[in-house]
Amino acid sequence: MEIPELANHIGVVLADYDTQLVTMTVREEVAFAMENRGYDRETIKARSEEVFAQVGLIGLEDRKITSLSGGQRQRLAIASVLATNPTVLVLDEPTSSLDPDGTAELYRLVGDLNQKHGITVVVIDHDLHAVLPYANRMALMVDGSIACDDDVPTTLRYMYEHNIHVDALPSVFTTYMELEQAGFHSDEPWLSIESAIKGLHQIEMAHAIQTEVHGESNSNNNQTNTTVVEDRKPIQRVDDVQGKDGGAHA
């Protein structure tokens, strides 16, 4: 497939998204790509309204791009790419210039585009903490080659067990792996704080049940031992036990 044909199916938002914004206002920016592809005016208007709703820019259509915040400009770059209906959206280092709140907001948007609008989203990022709760597949590249391409827990486990970019693993996942190696297990891997809390509750409950079972077992053993002692014949005094020669044995 040639690059012009790929461009009809794949939309890319660069890490430096400001370089992709070329017009004066929000409305003009979203319309620009569609005008280049020959969309008619009614289609441009209808499609613009759709993408403004998708990325949360309703009410900002007539704002100048220079007056937008960094997060809003990034949403505008995503909207201008989505306007042409790509089936795949590629985000290159999308959180590099965002604070933690902006990062969380971006990935909520990305998750919504994928889950509610059926758009395949490919994220290229070194910071895994925020994106993992929304991901269902993860590919690991080492020296330009794909080392592992599987579901998220499998790829993270591969990284941990092969000591590849371990410092990039979320701390909740490394804690999960360390607890697993120590003999503690939970129903699902920890990919977020919420799943870690759930897993800790499961471990705590399992420990409590195990303690209770062992306690009952020890109690039953004690009762059995007492019964055995009670069933024994009375112990005779040493000086009452006669030897074969009729004498007493000490």
Please give a structural write-up:
- The chain has 250 residues and is mainly α.
- 48% of the residues lie in helices and 10% in strands.
- The chain has eight helices and five strands.
- The chain has helices at residues 3-6, 26-36, 41-55, 70-82, 100-117, 152-161, 171-181, 193-231; strands at 10-13, 88-92, 120-124, 138-142, 145-150.
- It has a three-stranded parallel β-sheet with strand order 1-2-3, covered by helices on one side. The chain has a two-stranded antiparallel sheet with strand order 4-5.
- The longest helix is centred in the last third of the chain and has 39 residues, at 193-231.
- It starts with a helix and ends in a 19-residue tail after the last helix.
Radius of gyration based on Cα positions: 33 Å
Helix fraction? 40-55%
Number of distinct beta strands: 5
Mean pLDDT: 83
Distance between the termini: 103 Å
Biggest sheet record: 3 strands, parallel
By DSSP (H or I, 4+ residues per run), the number of helices equals 8
Poorly predicted segments: 226-250
Give me the side-by-side strand order of the main sheet.
1-2-3
Helix/strand order:
HEHHHEHEEEHHH
Query: Overall 3D geometry?
Result: elongated
Strand content: 5-15%
- Helix/strand/pairing class, anyone? mainly alpha
